[in-house]
Amino acid sequence: MLEWLAATEADIICLQETRATDEQTHKALAPALENGWHLALAEPGLKGRAGVGILSRREPRAVRIGFGSAEFDGNGRYVEAEFDDLTVASVYVYTGEADTPMQDEKYRFLGELGNHLKAQTGDFVICGDWNIAHTELDIKNWKGNVKNSGFLPGERAWVDEILDAGYVDVVRTLHPGVAGPYSWWSYRGRAFDNDAGWRIDYQLARGDVAERAKQAVVERAPEYALRWSDHAPVTVQYR
């Protein structure tokens, strides 16, 4: 990741599933921080789980951890940073498991997150590992996953609800009507080699910034051995 970070032209980078304490994350990213990057973190509530952050070339004017939830704010799944007239958030949504308490927890998280997103005004971009493939175009094997968490009707309807509230899925807008571009591939089998992936990493934007998205690319590694995550960076350029 440090090699990629040294080469990227991105101004703001949202991290999900750091799985590390604040101290460990600062240590791991020390070369980048020494080169001028600023880091805002929401530390995991459980050791080795979750954790999100925002790296930025400019220091944020304000940083907020969580979205006012008594249940979820301490779990390291949401952080937002304010830059003048733009707010950027990083989110890591629960994986869930159909017909279990884990799925109920995921729906509670989505419900509270949705209320927070709908209350936003102005330019706002939220990047995340949503653990939801929105449509059949967003998952290669959608027929085999209609009863699995990540492609359940209730989850997909939640994404519809957020889009109806004024958010734009900027990657889909820039890549209309095509399969993918996928951003996650299982480590099992030959999913990566066969591009049997899921598009579960979205940038949702509202306000004027949503209309300024001009290019989106999934920075997929050229071969399996060069991956540094089961996800690939989803990079959007805004005018």
From TrEMBL:
PROSITE patterns: AP_NUCLEASE_F1_4. GO terms for molecular function: double-stranded DNA 3'-5' DNA exonuclease activity; metal ion binding. The record marks 131 as: Transition state stabilizer. GO terms for biological process: DNA repair. The keyword Membrane does not apply. Mg(2+) binds at residues 17, 129, 131, 230-231. InterPro entries: AP_endonuc_1, Endo/exonu/phosph_ase_sf, Endo/exonuclease/phosphatase, ExoIII-like. The record marks 201 as: Important for catalytic activity. Transmembrane segments: none annotated. It is an enzyme of class 3 (hydrolase). SUPFAM superfamilies: DNase I-like. Residues 2-231 form the Endonuclease/exonuclease/phosphatase domain. Probably binds two magnesium or manganese ions per subunit. Its cofactor is Mg(2+); Mn(2+). The record marks 231 as: Interaction with DNA substrate. Its EC number is 3.1.11.2. The active site is at residues 92, 129, 231. Keywords: Hydrolase, Magnesium, Manganese, Metal-binding. Belongs to the DNA repair enzymes AP/ExoA family. This is Exodeoxyribonuclease-3. The lineage of its organism: Bacteria, Bacillati, Actinomycetota, Actinomycetes, Mycobacteriales.
